[in-house]
Amino acid sequence: MCVVLCSALGACSSDDGASPSPAAARTPRDAAGDGLFRDFLDGKYDGKGHPIGASVWQAESECKATIGSLEAEGRRLSRGDDGAGSACSAEVASLGLGRFDLNVRALVFDTRAADTADANKTVLHLAARDESGALLGEKDVPWSAFPTALTYTNVFLSFTHGTNARVKLEVTWPAEVDARLDYVELFRENRNLLLEPGSALAQTGASLQVEALAPPAGFELQVSCDAQDKTAEANALLAAGTATREDTEFRSAFTFPEEALLAGCSLPSRLRFRIGGPVSTQTTARVTRYAEEPPCTFGTETTRVLLTGFEPFPAWAEHDNSSDAAVKSFDPSAVPGISVMKLTLPVEFDTAAAIVESAIKRCDPDVVIGFGQGRSQVDVETTAYNLKDSAEIAGGIPDNRGRIPSAEPISSSGAAELTTGLPAAEILAALGADGITAGTSDDPGRYVCNNVFYRIMTSAAGTKRVSGFVHLPYVHTVGTAEQAELRSVVTHAVVAAVKKRLAN
Questions:
Q1: 443 partner at 20 to 30 Å CA-CA among 134, 160, 393, 402?
Q2: Above pLDDT 70, what percent of the chain?
């Protein structure tokens, strides 16, 4: 059976390569771009993960520095060898006007949690100044901003530049925490379109806020409701004063009455907003409005199985999401004695997890398996992390409504890690016997999949419920053959999970 997905993907093995040694720092697998983030790498980002058009200074070769020792992949900053000083300074001759991000990729050799005495020690100080020396922005990066030792983290400073003059960037090290600097990059903020609130029930009298950050001059806000173009209606609402628009130099904010935009659209419906303009400045965000919460569809005297997949991702995507196709195609009659509830989740931090949590509380399933679109093979995820961080690739990866969290906990009081309840060995054995390449992964990324996975496992605590998460291969267009194999993966996972639940 492996022939189907292998041919669809070009290869049926992971593109991540061998795991690096701890000294080289473990790179999250999803940062490799061979699955979850490939749409961003194919468009906005260059082959090394930098935003297209960014200025990049490698710490070991291009940064001007007064301290540190050079290593193969960066500049080592050690209290035993160095005093405080400049770890990287650089100048940009003509930056232009607008909002910019200074991104610094670095790691620490040990960590401190936010509630410890050393958490606020400064690892790096970031600053941007204009040619007169006036400060455009600065930021102290605390030790607590690095959640994992020996793992590169992206830390940001955003600032606004109002002239075409020279800008000087400075990364200084106060000699408080041992660290390694990988690179520094600077790029224009032209990526984000943020919708508020996220996907939710449609409500009478509700408003939708749309915020365009650093939009191109003379842009048009294009609006659609599923396949219906709503741009003319949106413009009419603005002209009539029913909707509002507020512009500043680097931001445009809109407020629309939801009911007017949803008129003529059947629920659930996806509202999509797009900034029109040159290809390099196009950006899209999307939310879904529902008529009701997902009904509980479990039968009596059965093992109740809740399965979740995701809407297409990114927000502009027209292609399929393999996880949604897999869940929708699963046939409950293939596993005697079960009843199934299926959810298609929005690709949104917290929102997707909240929908799953609500379904678990209302419907009390015995088995919960989340599925996501992943890499180049089936991965049974073993560990969920208490972290939301879509800065794994420089510049940040927005969810479908435009949110880009950076090193935020999912639960302020939750455990740092939670372990899957799925019988991974049994699932892998069944997949292997069926000719499907699969493995386990301890790195689900820190994107929406991990957010859902963590909340699924939180909800399973103290119960006999069998829960977990599985990443499926990226398949651009799911045809009949691909769907059959994806369905087999779901079936094997359900069979193994139900067997474990009945044995509890």
A1: 402
A2: 84
**Integer CA distances (angstroms), 401 to 144, 146, 208, 266, 277, in order:** 27, 26, 12, 20, 19
Task: Tell the CATH topology of 303-503.
Answer: Aminopeptidase (3.40.630)
> Please, what sign has the CA dihedral across residues 109, 115, 118, 121?
positive
Average pLDDT, the chain: 87
State how far the Cα of 329 lies from the Cα of 371, in Å rounded to an integer.
13
- Which of 189, 211, 348, 381 is catalytic? The answer is 381
Instruction: Fill in the DSSP letter of residue 45.
Output: B
Handedness of CA 486, 487, 488, 492 (dihedral sign): positive
**In sequence order, what E strands does 174-250 have?**
179-188, 193-196, 200-201, 207-213, 220-225, 228-229, 244-248
449 catalytic? Reply is: yes
54-188 against 303-503: fold identical: no
373 closest CA partner among 5, 84, 47? 5
Structural domain boundaries in the chain: 54-188, 193-290, 303-503
Class of domain 193-290: mainly beta
Kindly give, in sequence order, each residue whose CB lies less than 8 Å from that of residue 439, ignoring residues fewer than 6 positions away. Answer: 14, 377, 378, 379, 380, 428
Cβ contact 318:419 at 8 Å: no
Which residues contact residue 84 at a Cβ distance below 8 angstroms, ignoring those fewer than 6 apart? 67, 172, 173, 174, 175
Note the pLDDT tens digit of each residue in 318-354: 889 999 999 999 999 999 999 999 999 999 999 999 9
- In the residue annotation, 381 being an active-site residue is answered as yes
Closest CA relative to residue 273, chosen from 221, 229, 201: 221
State yes or no: cis peptide before 473, omega within 30 of 0.
Answer: no
**DSSP assignment letter at 297:** -
Report the CATH fold assignment for 54-188. Answer: Jelly Rolls (2.60.120)
Average pLDDT over residues 219-237: 93
Q: Are 307 and 423 in contact (CB under 8 A)?
A: no
**pLDDT digit string, tens, across residues 412-462:** 999 999 999 999 999 999 999 999 999 999 989 889 999 999 999 999 999
**Could you report how far apart the first and last alpha carbons of the chain are, in Å?**
32
8 Cβ contact list (under 8 Å, min separation 6): 473, 475, 476, 482
- CB atoms closer than 10 angstroms to residue 497: 27
Q: What angle do CA 2, 428, 304 make, to 5 degrees?
A: 110
How does residue 390 score in pLDDT terms, banded at 50, 70 and 90?
confident
